[in-house]
Amino acid sequence: MSDSQEIESIRPFGPARSTVKGEPLSKEEIDLYNDFFKASLYLSLGMIYLRENPLLREPLKKEHLKARLLGHFGSAPGQIFTWMHFNRLIKKYDLDAYFVSGPGHGAPAVLSQSYLEGVYSEVYPDKSEDVEGLQKFFKQFSFPGGIGSHATPETPGSIHEGGELGYSISHAFGSVFDHPNLIALTMVGDGEAETGPLATAWHSTKFLNPIVDGAVLPVLHLNGYKINNPTILARISHKELEQLFLGYGWQPYFVEGDDVDTMHQAMAATLEQCVVEIKKYQKEARESGKAIRPKWPMIILRSPKGWTGPRKIDDNYLEGFWRAHQVPITDVATNPEHLQLLEKWMRSYEPERLFGKDGKISEKLKSLCPTGNRRMSANPVANAGLIRKPLKLPNFQDYAISVPKSGGTSFGSMVAFSTFLRDVVAQNQTNFRLFGPDETESNKLGKVYEAGKKVWMGEYFEEDTNGGNLAPDGRVMEMLSEHTCEGWLEGYILSGRHGLINSYEPFIHVIDSMVNQHCKWLEKCLEVEWRSKISSLNILLTALVWRQDHNGFTHQDPGFLDVVANKSPEVVRIYLPPDGNCLLSVMDHCFRSSNYVNVIVADKQDHLQYLTMDAAIAHCTKGIGIWPQFSTDSGEEPDVVMASCGDIPTQESLAAIDLLLHHFPELKIRCVNVVDLFKLISPADHPHGLSDKEWTAIFTDDKPVIFNFHSYPFMIHRFCYKRPGAQNLHVRGYKEKGNIDTPLELAIRNQTDRFSLAMDAIDRMPNLHNRGAAAREALRNEQIKASAYSFEIGLDPPFLKDWKWSNTGLWKQNEKLLTN
Question: N or C: which end of the chain has fewer CB within 10 A?
Fold first, then answer.
């Protein structure tokens, strides 16, 4: 093939070229689809341009236009084209399906279909199917107080807004896991296809079990351009594109061209071929009981950007070029010739004929749409609270860790939670999944494999039986892509189920922006009356910064909490349980909650345990509290408040109290622990915030507070700046100091160790005067000795590493060890 022929073969112009041949539509049906297509395209342009004169029953004037033109038209024709042809198959095969709009700002396509299906008017009665309702429908698009240009939560049938690109495929797969009859028809924009998350999501077929799961039918829409650039996949050869998706494990079918009549036949035949294949594979797997992994069908649709628009405006290309991406003609309010061109273009869709005198399409056109909940914009899966079933949760108290002596028992909090989680999985075999990037075993959650192994549809080796924990019908979803795992989980809960993602704390940042988008979705859902609540997005962070000493500086970053804390207080919660019983209580609460992003921070190593189960429940219910077993100020004014938030910081804070009481037995010390981080914020800024009276009762308003925090110290100062006595708050946390250290040395580098905390407390108590000098000097000497020991031996001194609460000065008894 010559270069010129190759270039021509990837242009979307001319009669349809398709892999699947066939003419399933009659001439009458093609005419109906042409009319439906025109009506849809007219609605899409109307949303962008018109404030008045919705059916152009008078000549178009600039007074009829919106003052600010917003919206994207470029991808709308291809999305509409796909949606309306899939409607035929929903009716023919009684399919349970919904539509995922991946291209950015794809709402005009989705909204036009919802309006024509009648769903939009049912949800928003003032946007009725008449001239007055149509005028309101147009005006509210990308308009103050209206609806955005993405498929936002206000959009019926949407679970995927697409504000940030790259998550359409992973969301779609998440929604079809454990929904055996559901098909997610997923439009993938060719700009979106250039993102990393989208690239990894194509591998989701390796985790799709056709016995218990539904199917995703991707339509990769190659319209050729992004905002101002060609798209990569639209500029590679047909053969290379086919090989790419064959390599991913898909069977691609091409539909290419711009001649509408022939494209109708090609798309209708191709979509039907895909549906038949999907049903065949599912039938084969379900009847045989064998979980097969076929090459699932997908479609590559190549059509012009801004299809059916003017090819040129003045001397500039429009249809098939990047200028059609957003508002196709931008100067209609100031350029009379372009205003006439827009009117001619819009009238070419024959609005007066198609919408008639009543301002609605004919029943014959309406009959192309399914009815009831079979309409894709009415599918209950997209308003998942309607189909959400509560989790069956075992009694978390049955998994309690025995704590005969507070601060004297060491045990793995994650081990206890893993047992609880195992039984959650066991009791919810079609309603709950655990997601994570290859870290379930590493994060000490391996007991879940007793109830559900890792989903695996790839090849098996003999050695996989030795601890591989792989099975096609598993309940644990592991892939070394945080993006895909997070996208699966979001799709899973957005479609009515429950789940948990676990991750190493330092690398959860990979999905910062995904969590941002989900938080914004939840926040907007609170404003949409018809949206039912969904299960909370639960994120368990472990392999924490303070125990990443062996992996080095790159693995030390607790900053995800800052990202989450910036989101709306209506939808985010952060919990740092100090021990295992608190972790169990917190997780039970999070699993039962809805419409939140819950972030739980808990280390996976063995740690001191402090609270019995009853005490843990009380502490977690309050979210913050004074621990009297480690305090000496009962009934008296404290000299200092030693506060902590996080399991490892809590242990160091208690050890600091032990040191202080060894040197100054008469000190009145108050020990405070925080589980719910948002208790610290003013109640004016967060519903969980303590009142100022409650704050003062715990922290005082005139005593020094030494606060040992899990993450960056500035976060606590930001939370507490309004509080009484905020100037007395001295926070220690991670300060970007790290290396290949021992745990104690890492803490010393960041001044969160027991010695630094005790010295800080001495410095903040002026009543000690110079009496504190000798103690401070001794503490600094011990700190130096501990560091020297760690550098020489490679381990922390055992009596420091294995410290337990005793208030007997055990560190002093082991002074010889440091000296020697």
Answer: C
